[in-house]
Amino acid sequence: MLTNRSKAVDRHPMTVWEKMYLPAIAKGMSITLSHFFKKKPTINFPEETRPFSPVFRGLHILNRDEEGRENCTACGLCAVACPAEAITMEAAERKEGEEHLYREEKYAAKYEINMLRCIFCGLCEEACPKDAIYLSETFAPSNYKREGFIYGKNDLLIPDPKKEPELYQKAVGERARKK
Ligand code: SF4
Ligand code: SF4
Q1: Ligand 1 pocket member 128 (CB < 6 A)
Q2: Residue 98 CB partners (closer than 8 Å, separation 6+)
Q3: Going along the chain, which residue ranges are E strands?
Q4: In the chain, what are the domain boundaries?
Q5: Which residues make up the binding site for [4Fe-4S] cluster 1 (predicted)?
Q6: Ligand 1 centroid vs 159 CA: distance in angstroms?
Q7: 60-178 adopts what CATH topology?
Q8: Residue 163 Cα to ligand 1 middle (Å)
């Protein structure tokens, strides 16, 4: 016996009262009615959302600095650290006149994460030496097509803090602001 919750089954013949099933029906109805007065466990998503755990790891964000320049230098450390091989990228050299777009001489011309592979472990965030990627407090929405789960650079880049400060703050989220 694994637990002490087992119950011996009483196999005595049913009485006339029991054969009417009325007590059993009344008992069942009383259980059902008692649930009307209990707090509803369901929530009206998406209008209502559950509070996430402080350590929740959601959708990735590619970060910019305070001047709106992309932090990522396409060093590839996040891709190497990723146990699911979900990250791919192509590096490019920054040209003259692009200093306002990219913080360093090298940047990710292409950066993709396959959310169907990703296990949201956060190792890419841990590996990044440039504070260029972190896992936010939102999650990848559902999609009918596999291609919809391949997130490109445009899907991942945080809004420019200079051009869209409100969207930037929203994307940064409470947890990252407290860091
Ligand atoms: S969270 Fe983990 S699995 Fe997902 S991309 Fe980052 S390292 Fe890979
Ligand atoms: S996100 Fe970070 S670790 Fe990944 S390529 Fe860019 S700078 Fe390197």
Answers
A1: no
A2: none
A3: 60-62, 87-93, 106-114, 133-135, 150-151
A4: 60-178
A5: 72, 75, 78, 128
A6: 22
A7: Alpha-Beta Plaits (3.30.70)
A8: 29
